[in-house]
Amino acid sequence: MEVTLLDYYGRELNLWAAEGNTARLNEARSKLRETWDAVRPEVAAKGGATEAAQFDALVAKLARATLPKDFTAAAGPILDSVDALENVFTRAQSSPSTGALVDRGRYLATIGGCGDCHTPKTASMEPDASRLLSGAPADAPAPSAPNKPGEVVSSSGSTAFHGPWGISYAANLTPDPETGIAKDYTEQSFIQALRTGKSPDGGSILPPMPWQNYSTMTDDDLKALWAYLQSLKPVKNQVKPPVHAAGVKGAA
Q1: Rounded to whole angstroms, how far apart are CA atoms 13 and 65?
Q2: Of the chain's two ends, which shows fewer C-beta atoms within 10 Å, N or C?
Q3: Domain spans in the chain, listed from the N-terminal domain onward
């Protein structure tokens, strides 16, 4: 099981940190990251969104380690968290509906057209599967200004929009801990935002996000949608903040 490999590489970090072997530390870190990237979607799909987000943060801390003592400081919490990841699989065995919840969320995201705005496009204007629901690309230019009052202009990939409210950029809905939805939202605040049109910081969710449509969904459906988003591959993409028209406060 790949979770067991996370434990193995965590112990290797402690071993090579004690010996001050930088080359081996970097190798163990790389292997642990590769293993986590492989196992993370399954952890989230089995109802371990919280545990996955916590482990994301630990892996991000490990990525910043430079000295042996930094690796040692990162390895301890990683080893402790492996137990929590294993518990996710144990719980899933007694709760086989988790996969169905993610499947339901995937279905709702598909028919709801989430990818129309939140997934970057390829050169042929097809959805880029490698950046699924990762939001407006950080390096993409802003859409041009409308020619007439009341018009809305979209970016070339339809991930950013310029309208009477200002400029809005489609959010990164992947669970990347530094740039994705997991950074600012929990399941509860996600549901609250789609019910009220307000982000956790009090800003308004800007057009063209049709939050009014999502506000009519049941709690169970919104929980399924959240579970699906947490099962996605994390994509590091720092979406630009919105540019507000005068008198408008909003969220991307």
Answers
A1: 11
A2: N
A3: 2-94, 101-251
